[in-house]
Write a structure and sequence with these properties.
Blueprint lengths: L11 H12 L23 E3 L1 H14 L3 H4 L3 E3 L16 E7 L4 E7 L3 E4 L4 E7 L2 E6 L3 E4 L5 E4 L6 E7 L1 H6 L5 E3 L14 H6 L22 E2 L1 H13 L4 H5 L1 E5 L14 E7 L8 E3 L3 E14 L2 E5 L4 E4 L5 E15 L1 H6 L5 E3 L3
Antiparallel strand pairs: 1-18, 2-3, 3-10, 4-9, 4-11, 5-8, 5-10, 6-7, 6-9, 8-12, 13-14, 14-19, 15-20, 16-17, 16-18, 16-19
The structure holds 2,5-dihydroxybenzoic acid (GTQ) and fe (ii) ion (FE2).
Length: 356
């Protein structure tokens, strides 16, 4: 006996039909509303988490909650106030801050949801991805693609906090979450050098190892994008006379798979933005959701007309079809991750300029 929605009618025969329809786990579309809405019916709301509070709460968790075996990862997940208590930042994205104290290790595991880290501050932690040790320092982007083994180590004297993003809500909605713990043995420790991934695919602009040819794998073979390279690319865009970036005071780069130019992973697009004070980038909205992490600088973001100030470490949830406008009070460096590749692949990607 179906217990879900039941439709009643004054007419006895029609009412009996509705009863029988419900009894057979069916619903009459002509009685349903709110399905084919003119614009997306978005439950998540625009929201900003303050970097200062995230850092303080991470530190307190660091004092009180052991990580390591059993404890796993010391992570505070962004829980969007519109999502009814789910630990999700938007409908499709998990966002979090992770805190790893000196000498601590987060043990190896793998999962089908893909993950990435953007380092807001500090250095010294290394993450092994399928055994390849990747150093993490401020401004770096680190990928842990779907089903790759990963573990985090902090051999230094200082704690480190970074921003995590995963496509977990999306993969969960697709009923495709799998998880496997490691065998408890740590990966060989990082030496001073670069990861194998960086030696092969991060050698220099446009340089790929000989013999590399299509078809490209599902994710970028380069697993660490160093801040020095991102910084140089943004500076170059802004310094190029007559370029759109120079004209508007807004430079942005997309982190790409160096072998294909595609997004770093099939479900997530990563970008770095630099806005100069007085820039002229207009408000924009798009389908699909995004998370923004403030790396450096100061300014404000206007989300559907509501203005929130921005300071380093702040994290912002931008739900689908939310109008976004950025203001820079000093050069503002924003990392963003979105589900745009998914929307594009499905033919659902839309943008609108000048909204809000
Ligand atoms: O660092 O492996 O924020 O597995 C959520 C799930 C981080 C991680 C998160 C994870 C991780
Ligand atoms: Fe993980």
């Amino acid at each position: 006996m179906a217990t879900h929605r039941f439709h009643a009618a004054d007419d006895a025969a029609l009412n009996a039909l509705y009863e029988d329809i419900a009894d057979k786990d069916l619903q009459p579309l002509w009685e349903l509303s709110g399905l084919l809405t003119p614009t997306p019916n978005v439950r998540a709301v625009p929201h900003r988490w303050l970097g200062k509070e995230l850092r303080e709460l991470g530190e307190r968790a660091g004092e009180l909650v052991p990580v390591d075996r059993g404890g796993d990862r010391r992570v505070l997940s962004l829980s969007n106030p519109g999502l009814g208590g789910a630990p999700y930042a938007t409908a499709t994205l998990w966002g979090a801050v992770q805190y790893l104290g000196p000498g601590e290790t987060a043990p190896a595991h793998r999962h089908t949801p893909a993950a990435l880290r953007f380092v807001l501050d500090g250095e010294g932690v290394w993450t092994a991805v399928d055994g390849d040790p990747l150093h993490m320092s401020a401004g770096d982007l680190i990928l842990t693609p779907s089903w790759t083994w990963h573990e985090h180590h902090n051999p230094g004297d200082l704690p480190m906090t970074w921003f995590d993003a995963l496509d977990l809500p999306l993969v969960e909605a697709l009923d495709a979450v799998f998880f496997e713990p490691g065998d408890g043995r740590a990966a060989p420790s990082a030496n001073a050098g670069l990861s194998a991934s960086e030696r092969r695919f991060g050698g220099g602009p446009g340089l790929l190892p000989g013999g590399t040819s299509a078809p490209a794998p599902a994710h970028s073979p380069l697993l660490r994008y160093r801040w020095a390279d991102t910084d140089r690319a943004l500076t170059g865009r802004l310094g190029e006379p007559g370029s759109e970036a120079a004209r508007t005071g807004h430079a942005h780069v997309r982190f790409a798979d160096p072998t294909s130019g595609r997004d770093v992973m099939p479900t997530m697009r990563c970008e770095m933005h630099r806005y100069l004070p007085g820039h002229t980038a207009p408000a924009e909205r798009r389908t699909g959701s995004a998370l923004i992490a403030v790396f450096r600088g100061a300014g404000a973001v206007e989300l559907d007309g509501v203005v929130e100030s921005l300071a380093p470490g702040d994290l912002i949830a931008v739900p689908s079809w939310t109008s976004v406008r950025i203001r820079a009070d000093e050069p503002l460096q924003l990392f963003s991750v979105s589900d745009a590749p998914v929307l594009e692949a499905l033919g659902l990607y839309r943008t609108e300029a000048g909204a809000g």
